[in-house]
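Hey,

The postdoc asked me to send both predictions to you directly instead of through the lab channel. I've kept everything plain text so nothing gets mangled by the mail client. Protein one:
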Amino acid sequence: MQTQVKPLKSEVFYPSEDGEPLAETQEHVMVILVTMSILTQYLRGQEAAVFANQFLYYIEGKPTARVAPDGMVVFNIPARLRGNYKIWEEGEVPSIVFEMTSAGTRENDFSFKKILYEQLGVKEYWLFDPYGEWISEQLRGYRLNEEENYRLIPDNRSEVLNLLLRPDGYLIGFYRLDNNEKLLTPDELFTAVEQAEQNLIAEKQRTEQERQRADRLAEKLRNLGIDP
């Protein structure tokens, strides 16, 4: 009796790129990158991973069931690099998603993506319109309620991040709730470090000048026969 060999099951391929640009304008690119940088620094040391414009696959075996959020944070997973994110492999749904929207992406961002993230159980969904093309206040957030439906966040406070969000020109400003301290952008952080270094140099110069004055005074006292 001849044994029949079962054909090997073909492996499903989940691409990590589609050749499309990161965003449609420089302002959109900037806010995506700066937001990722700020949140990565803020969540450092926590079990959380920050993603920017990477594929989120939400149905196993169906690589067309994907979306690429402009930004998202997933908690309870290691903060390592990934080419894409598959919900069934990691076992965690993103807790918060950001879409940097425009008039051209409004329909997709406010209909399909909003419904999808709601159904997936993403706790917060934030839309940021750098140009104010269709969101006059630029920033609008939604949070799941007890019925698992999105409701507008009236005070722009993110319960997921424990931060206050505000429009800051073409960027999103992130502020701590306890002291209203702003989380610095990479440029602001560089400026702050540069200023701190300049202050340190100036302080060393003042200390050296004071030492030299004290030495000169001591020398004058000794010349007068006074032991300082």
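Protein two:
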Amino acid sequence: MPEVRNQCIRCGTCCMKGGPALHAEDLQLVLQNRLQLEHLVTIRQGEPALSPLGDQLEYLQAEIIKLKGQANDWACFFFDKQSSSCMMYQHRPLECTLLKCWDTGDLERIINKNLICRTDIIPGDSPVLEYIVTHEKACSLVDLGSLLASLPVASLQDEVMAELTDMVQKDMANRAHALASSDFPSSMELFAFGRPLFKILNNFGIRVRESGGTLILQLSPEK
């Protein structure tokens, strides 16, 4: 008979799967600098992400602010792997407070509710907000799902790849412009602009390379 658990055993499984999304209740953690912008990553509207209640891929209807991962994996930034403990436990976000792996009911009730976004955090007169607005206008991800869904259609493939190439170029150009400015901290890139589009496309078998100063997108043969 399987063991029935009713308390955390600090196995770290939840923390290794990624950081929590931030809700309105967590805004004070940011405003009080317990969470700094360099600790956060924005998952943008239209970006593909795994459903928090399952393993299916979905395209986000609204942006999400999350605690970013560590280096090259999804483990929460504040998860200490050696001690299997949280480095901000006393001030952990709402989702972490409610999460019980043996009973996920409380967590499920708040999923995708009262989430905060970048404009909740960045003051209206901040130059960083101007970079964010410019980036969204230049390379929104709202149509990304339909573009990727059209890729298997041979007659549309060239058109889709051209549009994706244009989006990647604009994404990289806007990031480079911001990072070259003295009023844009490089540590804020993932919060301000989210993950680079070319990294997102890698998950769909689309590789980006540079040739003679030109970006070229290539679809993997198996795609």
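Summary for protein two, as requested: The chain has two domains: 13-120, 122-219.

Thanks,
C.
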